[in-house]
Amino acid sequence: MSGWKSLGSVDSRHLVNARLQLHWAAQVASAVGKQLLPQEPDFSQQSFEWSERAGALVQGQVEAARPFRAGLKLADLALSLLDRMGSPIAELPLSGRTLDEAYGWLQTELERLLGRKLEPLERPGAEMPAHPVGTGRRFALADSGPFAELARWFADADRVLREVQRMTPGASPVRCWPHHFDLATLLTVAAGDSPETARTVGVGLSPGDGGRPEPYFYVTPWPYPPSPQLPALGGGGLWNTEGWLGAILEAHTLASAHDQEGQAREFLVSAIAACRSLVEGK
Q: Which helix (H) or strand (E) holds 242?
């Protein structure tokens, strides 16, 4: 695994348009897993993991005469079908193309690789954030800087989240979920009869959302404790209490740190311990 990639060369306020385009593009790539991978109880067949080699979010492997994985190259704003080694079999730069053209290209390439006709690829069923590409406008890579910066955010997040996952028995794999477009792992503090009744701590990166448009690391307790006494956080973290409860490390705080990787780790260690104590009632 390569080292930490310096963040902050692009102002995080300028990442929103790139993030929204990539969020919509991820729905195209995730359609492969929805249709061609075995269905999992948690729907993780739709999810991605970060591939440092490919510089892409990639799905699980589809078995074929030439096995392949669907991916989305963030810095290039490109759909990709990758072989076992992470090298491209087919690739489509999305800039200048519409969402319909992206789905059409992917459908054709999948049928070519599988040697058979497929049902039309599924479009997003859940509500997506508004962006012109969702209503037929063309993707645009006019300025590659924000796309490359978001790729660095995902690469760095994958680096520290995999460390958390390795050090925590029973932690879930680090995955990117296409609907929310966040990269996360789930730590089980106490198992329940169902996911809703388990006591857990979610740890991840959001590249931004409707409430907080800039990237942020987050750590969330579940269930939310009633009237909690929120402990102090290290690493420049603070508590979000509007709409949801969780510890966050904001983009501008991390980007301005002298030791970004050290600060991210300090925040995660502090926030995970704090959220564990909240779900354990301590």
A: none
Q: Please tell me the distance from the alpha carbon of residue 214 to that of residue 207, in angstroms, as a whole number.
A: 6
Q: Are strands 238-240 and 199-206 parallel, antiparallel or unpaired?
A: unpaired
Residues 114 and 206 in one domain: no
Residues 122, 188, single domain; the answer is no
Q: Which domain holds residue 261?
A: 180-279
Q: Are 185 and 174 in contact (CB under 8 A)?
A: yes
Half-sphere exposure of 160 (CA within 13 A, CB side): 24
Rg of the Cα trace of the chain?
19
- Residue ending a domain, among 108, 135, 162, is 135
Give pLDDT tens digits for 136-195: 999 999 899 999 999 999 999 999 999 999 999 989 999 999 999 999 999 999 987 676
172 in a structural domain: no
Q: Is the pTM of this model over 0.90?
A: yes
Work out the number of other CB atoms within 10 angstroms of the CB of residue 236: 18
> Is residue 173 included in any domain, yes or no?
no
What are the CA-CA distances from residue 151 to residues 68, 71, 77, 84, 108 (Å)? 22, 13, 10, 21, 27
Do 131 and 23 sit in the same domain of this protein? yes
Do 116 and 216 belong together in one domain? no
Q: What angle is formed at CA 149 by the lines to CA 177 and CA 69, rounded to 5 degrees?
A: 40
Which two tokens mark 143?
Answer: 């300025």
Strand order across the beta sheet in which 56-58 lies: 49-51, 56-58, 69-73, 78-82, 88-93
